[in-house]
Amino acid sequence: MSGSAAPGSSPVRPSAGLAARTWSVVAVPLVVTVLSVLLGAVIMLFSELLVPGHPFDWGLPLTAYGALVNGAVGRPEAIVSTLVYSTPLVFGGLAVGFGFKAGLFNIGAQGQFLVGALGAVMAGVALANAPAPIAITLAAIAGLVAGGIWGFIPGFLKAVSGAHEVVSTIMMNYIAVQLLAALVSGPLKVPRSPSPVTFDVGNAAFPIILGPNGHLGILLAVIAALFVWWLLYRTTWGFEIRSVGANRDAARYAGMRPKLITVATMTFSGCLAGLAGTSVLLGVTHTMTSSFGTTVGFDSIAVALLARSNPLVIVPAAVLFGGMRAGAGLMQIKAQIPVELVDVLQATILLFLVTSPVLRRVLRVSSPGAGQPGEDLGVASVDAQAAAI
Amino acid sequence: MTDQSGTSLAPALEMRGITKRYPGVVANDRISLEVRPGEIHALLGENGAGKTTLMNVLYGLARPDEGQILLDGQPIRIAGPSDAIARGINMVHQHFMLVPVLSVADNILLGEETMANRVFLDRREAHRRIVELGRRFGFEIDPEAKVGSLSVGWQQRVEILKALYRNARILVLDEPTAVLTPQETDEIFAVLRRLAGEGHSIVFISHKLYEVLAIADRITVIRRGRVVGERRPAETNEDDLAELMVGREVQLTVDRGTSHPGATVLRVSGLEATDDRGHPAVKGVDLDVRAGEIFGIAGVAGNGQDELVESIIGLRRPAAGTVTLDGADMTGHSPRDMNEAAVAYVPADRHRFGLIRSFTLADNLVLTSYYRRPYARGVLRDGEAIQRDAVSAIERFDIRTPSPTVTAGTLSGGNQQKAVVAREFDRDLKLLVLDQPTRGLDVGSIEFIHRQVIAKRDAGTAVLLVSAELDEVLEMSDRIGVMYGGRIVAVVDGRTADKNEVGLLMATGGSQRGAVAPVEAAS
Question: Are B273 and B414 members of one domain?
Answer without folding.
Answer: yes
